[in-house]
């Protein structure tokens, strides 16, 4: 297993990995705004281009992975943020495409496309009063949260976005006073709207809301943390034990279970009352308990870099810090040491700031098998995104391809017995094709069709016989009818001849 | 006037050379020139950081360090030693910088260096790093163990003798990680450094050994002072390693806090060690061990990690206890400094056994 790190800067996009030195640079990619890239499944990466009304699609996994652009999707205008809503209605992962693609523009407009058909389902004109900074779909795609530069956070229901002409958000949170730059939703949630929402903004605060609809009738503000500088990004520990916030002056680690003194731990996110805690950098000689009574929390500073994006690894011990110079530093959280630095492979050194980071665990093929399943899968194209809003009358056709479920192929070197069994099974299938049928042919047609459902030839035989009989009957009828007509014609012709001859004589 | 030549004769005519002009190329020459647009080096990483050229003093220092890294592989031992001494001076300023990782990656292979001055300079460098920030060494303990192990089984006896010193330094700063991840590996290595065999005296394999006391070349000259000093150092290292792994630290009675064990919720909070899940080997590609012949249990335990004191004590007592006692008797009989260390080792082993019997 390995963790794939995909990060884009203002002029480049790189696919690297945390634990091995592989790195690829994706061509012709430039991203101007934050959170402008998203992963579709595990194979495709969509990146919104800077100053062009295009989305570049790259294939980054599997046998057909390439550095060049796989497909370009033209759009009505330049977009800032991208997000996909996954198709979770089907239990088996047969659909290759997610359900919706959401995109936002600098004026606060929100576009909603259906990916399988390319139809533009909704355009919400003033979703936010200024540009939208991040879009995320939560609770398996049932809700969508958007944050904007107008200091608002809106929680939408996906159903509303898709079915209503002018969708209204479910909740609007306007506690922040400057642009909301980033937010994260906790990993612990149920199938209804629940969990915690952490938002950071340029107004130097981080707020935590509780979204549990069983307890509160609207999202409840639990705690506000104030920091000494404007915050740009936030990421959560996978078990929600801590969060890491970053800004122009560095990255702080904020543990939610804050140790004060001897064996006492304070839960910073309790829902007693709306707390305001101010966060300061930890100095040696601080007594946590004293500071806590004054409403202060002493935090460890992980790095001083000017951070623009953060991501946390699978087990929570590594933090990826994307800074304003275009490089990603992988740091160990406990010892605050940089383990690795990843940069785009470009000649010029003006990459710009890191605009988005995606951290994704992938399976690495460790077997020595020489066979791959590459050639059998053909690439497919995402349908072009429409520019006109889909008219809701008439048929709504969606073409979609169901993948053929294949048994995994076993290589002869891995397990020879299993390989022989597999070859024998394939041989058996081949032996059934063709005109020669090895099974017993049953005389009556209906019984034959029921008893051998898996053998297509014997089932087809009685059906063919039936068809033959009906066709023969029809032919017989037609020939009979023709003969009659022919006889009638001959008779008439002879009468005509005789009449003519009698007239001719007279 | 030239006669009209036939086509056949025209083929054999040579072109006249012109003064000052290049030789005329043959008619079948093909130009192999090409312009390379980009070269992709997927396995190499950029060492220089992106950014403007007005570097601050710190960044210039880091760039300087990174340039000197290749000197660690210089053919002259003096250059290598000077590089290590320079790094040691730089440690206070670069201890939190990102160049520590490449620095340590280049320095660890020098544990197996053949020159004694290089090794002693490296030892000083590691001590210095440990003094300033233990966590750096703890983070890279995996690589350190790899090189210490290879030095313990090195064919040059001098390298083998010095491996004990490196292990001692490692135990002091990242002992916790070492005893968890590589308990059996280090014990086996120390045994081979000290020249003690791991098989029981009555088994068939011992008949292959030549004579009683001489198992490895590290004890070739048994009575020289150098060998005696190194024997003493290695015995001390073994003693420290065993103590670190098996004996739980007693709570300090002088500090005001009451001693308390781990609380019930500690395992849910963020663990206070670097790389806490390294022993699960999630992201490491391990080579499959193809040996299907039956081997002793010790081989199987080579790569297992032991997370608590009781397991480590059990492994020690089961596989190593008897061998240690036998060989320690010989050393005590010789007497001197080594004898004293050996006696304390014997005492410690006795303590461990009684502790384990009491717990069991």
Automatic annotation (TrEMBL), chain A:
GO biological process: DNA-templated DNA replication; rRNA processing
Family annotation (InterPro entries): WD40/YVTN_repeat-like_dom_sf, WD40_repeat_dom_sf, WD40_rpt, WDR18/Ipi3/RID3
Skewed-composition ranges (Polar residues): 447-458
Region (Disordered): 444-467
Organism: Lachancea thermotolerans (strain ATCC 56472 / CBS 6340 / NRRL Y-8284) (Yeast)
Keywords of this entry: Nucleus, Repeat, rRNA processing, WD repeat
Function: Component of the RIX1 complex required for processing of ITS2 sequences from 35S pre-rRNA.
Residues in WD repeats: 125-157
GO CC term (a single one): rixosome complex
Main location class: nucleus
Protein name: Pre-rRNA-processing protein IPI3
Family designation: Belongs to the WD repeat IPI3/WDR18 family.
Record's subcellular location: Nucleus
Subunit comment: Component of the RIX1 complex, composed of IPI1, RIX1/IPI2 and IPI3 in a 1:2:2 stoichiometry. The complex interacts (via RIX1) with MDN1 (via its hexameric AAA ATPase ring) and the pre-60S ribosome particles.
Automatic annotation (TrEMBL), chain B:
Key words, A-Z: Nucleus, Ribosome biogenesis, rRNA processing
Region (Disordered) residue spans: 1-32
Gene Ontology biological-process annotations: rRNA processing
Pre-rRNA-processing protein Ipi1 N-terminal domain mapped to chain residues: 136-241
A GO-annotated cellular component: nucleus
Domain of life: Eukaryota
Keyword Disulfide bond: no
Localization per record: Nucleus
Broad class of where this protein is predominantly found: nucleus
Family stated for the protein in its record: Belongs to the IPI1/TEX10 family.
Complex and partners: Component of the RIX1 complex, composed of IPI1, RIX1/IPI2 and IPI3 in a 1:2:2 stoichiometry. The complex interacts (via RIX1) with MDN1 (via its hexameric AAA ATPase ring) and the pre-60S ribosome particles.
Summary of the function given for this chain in its UniProt record: Component of the RIX1 complex required for processing of ITS2 sequences from 35S pre-rRNA.
UniProt-recorded name of the protein: Pre-rRNA-processing protein
Organism whose genome encodes this protein: Lachancea thermotolerans (strain ATCC 56472 / CBS 6340 / NRRL Y-8284) (Yeast)
